[in-house]
């Protein structure tokens, strides 16, 4: 990982959220920035970081495809250590970033180093490949988890996810007509992207405060 973080939100927030980006867009993409700012507005401290392959794209030294998710686990562990959060920590990310976080979450939760896991648009399967599930480790997940998912997300719709065996520690916030970036079609749903970001951040804030105030 790179040693640089992007921060949003008050330094004296009750909790910190560490977010990794998705497979194809950097930590300062429009979607990541909008989500981070919404969470910050809800009173949370947000730190974004970048995996090395994405940082190399930014520097112009190459355009490597993303590694397999399991190969990014060491980098996520490094990010947690480098952040050294002084307040209760929630880890997570957008799409692939949330998936990688979910693969290291239990080891850190068991050690008392994180309070929970927040996933924004979890990639339950690749688009148009609903049989290639990425859910095996989610069945026994022990970390308190909130997944914020659009109902028409091509990586896992409400109908599809409803049939999966998931750990009881996982809560899913469904955002009506949201896509993989949680954006709805206003003409269809009556909601705007801003509406869904506000709903997402309000739910995340109340859920996180419930975890850290226990």
Summarize the model shown.
The chain has 214 residues and is an alpha/beta fold. The chain has seven helices and seven strands.
Describe the structure.
This protein has helices spanning 30-41, 52-59, 73-83, 96-110, 158-161, 186-189, 193-212; strands spanning 6-8, 16-20, 45-49, 89-94, 116-120, 145-150, 170-175. It is of the alpha/beta class and 214 residues long. A 7-stranded mixed sheet has the order 1-3-2-4-5-6-7, with helices on both faces. The chain is globular, with a radius of gyration of 16 Å.
Q: Span from first to last CA? A: 32 Å
Largest sheet: 7 strands, mixed
Strand arrangement in the largest pleated sheet: 1-3-2-4-5-6-7
Q: How many β strands by DSSP?
A: 7
Q: Structural class, from helix and strand content?
A: alpha/beta
The radius of gyration computed from the alpha-carbon positions, rounded to a whole number of angstroms, is 16 Å
Helix and strand sequence: EEHEHHEHEEHEHH
Give the uncertain stretches in residue-range form. Answer: none
Instruction: Indicate the proportion of strand residues.
Output: 15-25%
* Overall average pLDDT: 95
Q: What shape does the CA trace take?
A: globular
Proportion of residues in helical segments? 25-40%
Helix count from the secondary structure assignment: 7
